[in-house]
Write a structure and sequence with these properties.
globular, 44% helix, two-stranded antiparallel sheet, alpha/beta
Length: 258
């Protein structure tokens, strides 16, 4: 567990994990038409790892064997329909923790959607609890993502996701992935939960400088990693390289005493 945690979240810098697992819940999207393409396209541009699907992990085994410094976080669940906000979505696992260990990845990741019925919430907590137990048995970290699926980024949603992050902690998440709630809230979550936080970048939005500024705020707040994908690989190549280079420079300004 400790070995894998230190690979995913190195003490020498803030981690940059590039998500390319969108195909599990999204329609076909620009930049991910060939699912494994962003991995080979960006793997040598100072990212520390990728968030991937089982298919992508299997298809890129040779590439990662040749680039052992890169880490892999395997998404083990899915949710349909992500556009629904009325509690009618359905969540489930697509693979097992044992399979993840067999594939040689460094961590597993699950959504933790909360805009569902109380009955579904209980089932969700039971599902997460079972995965946490398996992760402890196999010595592999769980990245858990508290989220209100499809909800706009209103103040009410941000407050709610902060509360859901506490539930994720209580269920035993080893790493919590959350949409950026602002510097003050991120700093408070880091101080109170004392569990590593990684902050999701979300869909392509704003200018390259906007993305860099948001990441800088995230890191100043104490986050151990940033999850940045579409704000890099959906931009024109030169702009994406600029964003990643500036983000990487910021992440290398921080070291951690674990």
């Amino acid at each position: 567990m400790e070995y894998r945690l230190r690979r995913v979240l190195p003490s020498s810098r803030v981690a940059i994990i590039m998500p390319v697992d969108h195909g599990l819940i999204f329609d076909r999207i620009d930049g991910l038409e060939t699912p494994s393409a962003p991995i080979t396209a960006w793997g040598e541009n100072d990212v520390t790892g990728f968030m991937m699907t089982p298919g992508q992990v299997r298809q890129t085994e040779r590439y990662f064997a040749a680039h052992p410094h890169l880490t892999r976080v395997l998404t083990i669940d899915t949710y349909y329909d992500y556009r629904e906000q009325d509690g009618k979505g359905s969540h489930g696992l697509i693979t097992t923790v044992e399979d993840a260990v067999r594939l040689g990845v460094d961590a597993v990741k699950m959504l933790f959607p909360w805009n569902m019925s109380n009955e579904e919430r209980v089932a969700m907590c039971n599902r997460v609890g079972a995965v946490v137990r398996e992760c402890e048995n196999w010595g592999i970290p769980l990245v858990l993502e508290p989220v209100l699926i499809g909800a706009p980024r209103s103040d009410e949603v941000i407050v709610a996701e902060e509360k859901i992050a506490r539930i994720a902690y209580d269920l035993g998440a080893h790493i919590i992935k959350i949409a950026f709630p602002g510097e003050e809230r991120t700093r408070r979550l880091v101080a109170e939960l004392k569990v590593p936080l990684v902050i999701a970048g979300g869909p392509l939005a704003g200018t390259p400088s906007d993305t860099v500024d948001a990441v800088a705020q995230t890191i100043r707040s104490g986050a151990r990693g940033v999850i940045v994908g579409r704000n890099i690989w959906q931009r024109e190549r030169a702009a994406g390289e600029q964003v990643l280079a500036e983000v990487a420079a910021i992440t290398r300004q921080y070291q951690f005493q674990d």
